[in-house]
Design a protein that fits this description.
alpha+beta; Alpha-Beta Plaits; four-stranded antiparallel sheet; about 20% strand; binds adenosine-3',5'-cyclic-monophosphate
């Protein structure tokens, strides 16, 4: 099924100048990039984006991390894009990520894990519209 998913290159990977390498992996994996923004999240934007994690012990630290520097936010499209981007990222904890995944290559720890991806169709819809409200995605 053709799908869209939200991807974020997080502040750790941006600071380490890995954005280009990660974009190359995305292109080589065959995703179409439908929208892209370079932005510095405000605290309110980070809190709203991660609202489902509000009660978690790591919420404050996660929001501080996500606002510490610029991020690249993207809409990726392709067959099974949600699951395929999750596979290319690897699991949340880079220590558990298989060789060749983005998080294995560029993640530092379970929080500073280089990239984000939507975890399912409902989340993808919410997350895409969160950063690209009403935007007509490039065909
Ligand atoms: P992400 O896929 O963006 O979704 C939620 C984020 O919270 C996750 O990546 C990590 O950056 C962070 N996170 C998840 N679990 C933990 C944890 N146990 N400790 C610290 N940060 C976490």
């Amino acid at each position: 099924m053709n799908e869209r998913t939200l991807a974020i290159i997080k502040p750790d990977a941006m600071a380490a100048r890995r954005a280009g390498a990660i974009l190359s992996m995305i292109e080589e994996a065959g995703f179409r990039i439908r929208a892209m923004r370079l932005m510095r999240l405000t605290r309110a934007q980070a809190e709203g984006f991660y609202a489902v994690h509000r009660e978690k012990p790591f919420f404050d630290s996660l929001c501080r991390f996500m606002t510490e520097g610029p991020v690249i936010v993207m809409v990726l499209e392709g067959e099974g894009a949600i699951q395929r981007w999750r596979e290319l990222m690897g699991p949340t904890d880079p220590a558990k990520a298989p060789e060749g995944t983005v998080r294995k290559l560029y993640g530092t720890n379970i929080e500073r894990n280089a990239v984000h991806g939507s975890d399912g169709p409902d989340t993808a819809r919410f997350e895409v519209s969160y950063f690209f409200p009403g935007v007509e995605l490039v065909e």
